[in-house]
Amino acid sequence: MRTAIIVGGGIGGLAAALALHRAGWQVDVLERAPEFGEVGAGLSLWPNAFRALEVLGLDGSVRQRSVLAGQAGIRDPKGRWLSHSDTADIERRYGPTAMIHRAELLDLLRSALPAAALHSGITVHRVQADGTLHHSDGTCRGDLLVGADGIRSVVRASLWGNGITPRYAGYTAWRMVTDPVAVSEGSETWGRGARFGYAPLADGRVYCFAVANAPQGAADPGLAGLRRRFAAWHDPIPALLAATASDAVLRHDLYELPPLPTYFKGNAALVGDAAHAMTPNLGQGACQALEDAVVLARSLDGGGLSAYDRLRRPRTQMIAARSRRIGAVAQWASPAAVALRDTALRCAPRRTFTRSLAPVLSWTG
Q: For the whole model, what pTM was predicted?
């Protein structure tokens, strides 16, 4: 039986392990944390992610534990609509969109794997292109090595070198899950150099995110600072922040990877953020990791890692570039530029947004 060692037990790593397991591989997932878990908040699953989940056998379970709803559109801080999303048309053309807590998706992926395949508390120090790993418990080797260890990947640094440095996007983000609040649909609000978005979760809580321009490593104003910053923004934003506990807020500066020249070396391949960490402006980070997993397993039965690279690198780098451009426009702070942006959004036909998503959402595997 072919053996695969996956470094990283997040969504990309577990999805890759599951795809390979279903294809007949013996898999071992090495996770640095003392236990498999997820401290994140919510994530969006677009139609392309559901096609990957269908291949993994999890689409039905995900539907049961998520809210099937797309984003209603974009508003300005006073609550006036800049752009409405035709969620019904998106579903007709491409399929469902859902919001789920990261911990829920991680639990579904983990539960679908043999318990013996999951190894926590193991720190990988370096790897070799032949599939050999040197870690805190010794040395092991697999026919395939999968680097799913995030934007600061040890696998990538070992094989691609330390010259590939994540780039700061110019803005920071706060993610949080509120206490239960009655919210029927999600939306996003664009201001001057700041944004706020929210979407209901299946248990009545609400996933929220805030984004603001800031110097890299700037001091965190905390929840109190967020409440002050967004106090005058439209309902229900102040109420959502009021329903948030201070220990429920995660704050991270946002980074992305420069485009890599290849996603594989020897018997090693990169998936997820280790290969193509992108800004979250398209909500495609987890979706692309799920796609990676499915395509990797299929490629190994025909074409090998070069086929995986050929299929995944152009697509993920295209999506990363789109996300970067959207973030740049969304974070404009000049009054003149914001007025121009908002006018353009108001004048654009609704179908323009749906058509623009086609290269991202039409993926079929």
A: 0.97
